[in-house]
Every structure is written in C-alpha cells, then in structure tokens.
Amino acid sequence: MDPVRIAIIGGSGVYQMPEVTDAIEHRLETPFGSPSDWIVVGRLHGQRVAFLPRHGRGHVLTPTEVPYRANIYALKSLGVTHVIGISAVGSLKLELEPGHVVVPDQIFDFTKGRARSFFEGGLVAHVSVADPLCPTLSTIVAQAARQAGGIVHQGGTFVTIEGPRFSTKAESQVWRGLGFSIIGMTASPEAFLAREAEMHYTVMAHVTDYDVWHTDETVTVDLIVARFAKNVALAQRAVAAAVERIAATGFACGCESALASALTTQRDRIAPEARQRLALLVDKYLK
Predict the structure, then answer these.
(1) What would you measure as the largest C-alpha separation in the chain, in angstroms?
(2) Which of 26, 73, 185, 276 has the fewest CB atoms within 10 Å of its CB?
(3) 216 is catalytic
(4) Per the residue annotation, which of 211, 216, 222, 268 is the catalytic one?
C-alpha cells in the first residue's frame, strides 16, 4: 500500500471533500496519549492523505487541551512527512483583510501552559527553529491557495496566544506595535513538535477578523465561524492543489534531518524509558 506522506490538521470541513476516496478511520494510541480524534486516511489526486480534526469532531477541545504531542506522534507513526496546519486567525494589519489567506514564515509563541517538546525524562534535544515553518512547503501552499482563487500573503509573523479567550485591546495593540501579522491559538507548539519529528510543516491561515484592535466590529465566535465557513471551499481547493504540488516536488530543506545534530544526552546516559518512548523519532540516530 502507498505510504501516507501528507497530513492536514484542521477542521472537519476540510476532509469532507468529494475528491477524497477510499477513506478509512484510524484510532491510534501513542506514548503521549490519544490524538484529538480518529485520523481519516483517504486518497486525493492519487496520494494517500491523512486528515486530523485538531479540536476533535464537534470542536470539543480548547486550544490548550489539544493533545499536540499525540497528534504529531500519531501522524509520524503513519509515515507522514509533510503537514499543513489550517487555522482561523485574526489580522493585526489592515492590509490582511478578512477572507484573505496568510502563509506566515515566523511564529512568536506566547502560550503558557502546553507541553512544547517530545524530549524530556532522560533524553534531551535542542532543535533549531530559527525558521520554524518549512520554506519549501510554505511556498507550495501559498501557490496552491492562489491557484484556488485566494488572495494570499506569504510571510509575516504568527503570534500564538494561550486562549481560549480572545485578546484584550491592550494586548492586541502590543502585538501590532511589535509588527506581528496574524494572531491565533494553535500554531504553537504544533510547528515545533513537527520539527522535532523531522516533518515539513507550514500553516495555511485564513483571516476571519481584525482581532480587537480594529473598533469597527466586535470579534465573536459567530463572526469567526461564519467567515471561516465561507473559506472552507477555498481551503479544500487549496489542499487539493497543494497535494498535487507536494507529490511533484523534491524536499531537502533540512526539516527532514532536524535531529541530526540536536540530540544532546550522552548515549550511555539516555534513560531506557525515554529511548523506548521516542524510538520512532530517534532510532535512526542511536542504532
């Protein structure tokens, strides 16, 4: 059977695509617990693609409750090497209008209560995330979103806040003053864990509002849901186009070997439990 190279993490609307065939649900368990939900693996344009609803079906998990480590580990266990995270975000710049798509190149992590790494309990790794999003995959996703008819902005900083509350006006103005582009609640630690798992990862961010700095409208859940729903068809078309482009592109940008010089613990001091727990990630370097 063909391997599952590509995964989409987002809402249920993205994988409810008429083009997806032979869909099978997989319930996986990991050393870090259960993923957010069943992982749906189907075929799209000849490629086997995994779809994972980040917040669980029916949106039952807050951004903090999302089991990010289990999600990435489960996808890795399926053989996934390329991950597109789809997010609804607020805009911090006037030119990034609701309905537009942003493919950022930087992340500012302002989350506070999340497990940020696989490496703990007897095995330490310091992974480089100077450029936290895969540049090759980001370009592919931006091109695919344009091909799908979206107004796309490539580049910019995605500030990730803890949530689930929205920002205060004071906070929103600080983020604007720092020059950040978009704000959301799920890019961190998802992007960093994907790098530790040596995956190519990027974000397709759909702007739903102007956060709370823009006083012409009030940011509400109803507003965000309604605007993101309008973008679901665009997201579906962009995913389909991206899958085709990924299949035709060679990747050698460094994401696939992020652990090569990152493992720090002296080999004879690695805790057996940690070695077993992280075998999927580190065995190729420790054998």
Answers:
(1) 61
(2) 276
(3) no
(4) 211
List all residues 6 or more positions away from 251 whose beta carbon is below 8 Å from its beta carbon.
81, 82, 134, 136, 137, 200
User: Total domain count for the chain?
Assistant: 1
The answer to whether 99 and 230 have CB atoms below 8 angstroms apart is yes
154 backbone φψ class: left, alpha, beta (φ>0; ψ -120 to 50): beta
The CATH number of the domain holding residue 79 is 3.40.50.1580
Residues 19/95, Cβ–Cβ less than 8 Å:
no
- The reported pLDDT for the residue numbered 1 is 59
The token pair at 248 is 């035709």
Of 37, 105, 109, 209, which residue is the catalytic one? 209
* Amino acid present at 269: R
Mean pLDDT by 10 residues, the chain (287 residues): 88 74 94 97 93 94 97 97 96 96 98 96 97 97 97 98 95 97 97 98 95 79 72 91 91 93 96 97 94
pTM of the model: 0.94
Query: Number of C-alpha atoms within 13 angstroms, CB side, residue 265?
Result: 18
Decide if 28 contacts 39 (C-beta within 8 A): yes
- CA–CA dist 211, 182 (Å, integer): 9
d(CA 65, CA 37): 12
CA R_g for the chain: 18
- Domain with 100 in it: 4-286
Torsion angle of the four alpha carbons 214, 91, 114, 195, in this order, in degrees rounded to the nearest 10 = -160
283 given a catalytic annotation: no
Q: Which two tokens stand for residue 265?
A: 């613990």
